[in-house]
What we know:
The chain is 39% helix and 17% strand. The chain is α/β, with parallel strands linked by helices. α2 links the parallel β1 and β2. It is globular and about 50 Å long.
Amino acid sequence: MTSPIQKNLVEKNAEYASHFTKGDLALPPAKHYLILTCMDARLDPAAAFGIELGDAHVIRNAGGSARDAQRSIIISEQLLGTKEIILIKHTGCGMLTFSNEDAHDLVKKNLGPGAAAEIATLDFLTISNLEDAVKKDVDYLKKSSTVPDDIIISGWIYEVETGRVRQVV
């Protein structure tokens, strides 16, 4: 059975594909950078930061976590030649609203003890202070032996209320 979301996906893709002319873009990002940001649906990195198709890698996860994105960052740098990391967290992030313990308790309550046991050592990488989280993730990347010293790294906060971005690090 096809859900309404799947039906919309197929319809919108057909419309997009009918005008698609960029099938010859190179695999590596043309501008040699990556954006690491949150998966929050209120963020549209391409529109907010002027990213054209093929310009950059956009890595998204809950909270825009550097640790959670490390595998993708390594691939982007080592295999596809990115030279800059722009880390962007945002105001109103859901990761500010709960603790690691809260998340584990919720899994146990909603999914049962088997699921709780499966994720017993999982760190949900929650955030208690937004600016500190940006600084901590940038520091993590700068100290990581998987990120070469010549990679430019900056940290930003996107304000979901205004659409503006401000540099933290």
